[in-house]
Fold this protein.
Amino acid sequence: MRIFSGIQPSGEIHLGNYLAVIKPWLDLQTKNDCIFCVVDWHAITVPYEPKNLQRKIKEVATIYLTAGINPEKSIVFTQSVVKEHTELAWLLNTITPIGDLQRMTQFKEKSAKQIKNVCAGLLNYPILMAADILLYQTEIVPVGQDQKQHVELAREIARRFNAKFGETFTLPQAQIIKIGAKIMSLTEPNKKMSKSDKPETRIGLFDTPEQIKKKIGSSTTDSGKEIKYNPAEKPGVSNLLTIYSLLSDKTIKDLENEFAGQNYQAFKQKLSELLIEKLTPFRDKKSELENNPAIIDKILAHGASQAEKIAQQTMKKVRVAMGLL
Ligand code: TYM
């Protein structure tokens, strides 16, 4: 099956991105035809620092590789290098009702945060995402909970295009993990962990052992003292149990048994140790790749040339279907 997914090179890539999205990519990559993109055109729809963008793009690519994405099996590339993404996005603009874009939850949330600077790109963001997905005739799009609505819109845009201009696109489907598709903030466990909130709300993949201990130690827990999964009544502990379960591949039930009778402090200490063990390779690999930046450049250039071939085939079909060729 053809798989496509991507992460924006903005803010700090965190545990939520890793556990809900990158980790499932690793299983998918063994049996499927996968494309993993660094979606830089999406990252510039909110205020950003141009001089940091190239560094952030490489950082995201480093995370993909450190996590275990194999560039000999999967295509890894930067969105803005393959120009067909913007060409298709423009064409899809012409068949997407503005109302569909205005009702997107993420648009409403992001535009409320930056009332003075809502650009057309922020509204049209899901169309660019649809172009990313449809260009590669994608069947499965592994994402976190917050992107499900955008993938559903991409499917609707594909369906509409096919009905109007003839069968052109594969209809994509979102794939979301059952538990952990929305990892919550460490300090406000009723809000999702986010790249753009304060550092203490999340674990960054390059956090040092000291930062991990401090953040987990001061993460919000709930009243009571039992280590029990109950998101409605114990959102803090339930979030930490979810993180522990995904990192250790143990079920939440097993963890509840393992920590029965122990207090929050003992549980947090074990979780910190596990996080330090799992995240140390990210920091090590980052410094290794930073010392040899040509490795990432080469992988991204190779990935872009592979992606471009597929994108060009789709664009040829699209132009013919729309009477542009
Ligand atoms: P982005 O960069 O915001 O997030 C990358 C992925 O991480 C997921 N995610 C989370 N999952 C669980 N818990 C959290 N707290 C959490 N926060 C973020 C997101 O759902 C996402 O899957 N628009 C996309 C990027 C994109 C894309 C695409 C994805 C552009 N084109 C095509 C798939 C296919 C985004 O902003 O992701």
In short: The two ends are 29 Å apart (CA to CA). The longest helix spans residues 294-321. The beta strands are 2-7, 33-38, 75-78, 140-142, 173-175. The pocket of tryptophanyl-5'AMP is lined by residues 4-8, 16-17, 20-21, 39, 42, 129, 132-133, 141, 143-144, 146-147, 150, 181-183, 192-193 (CB under 6 Å).
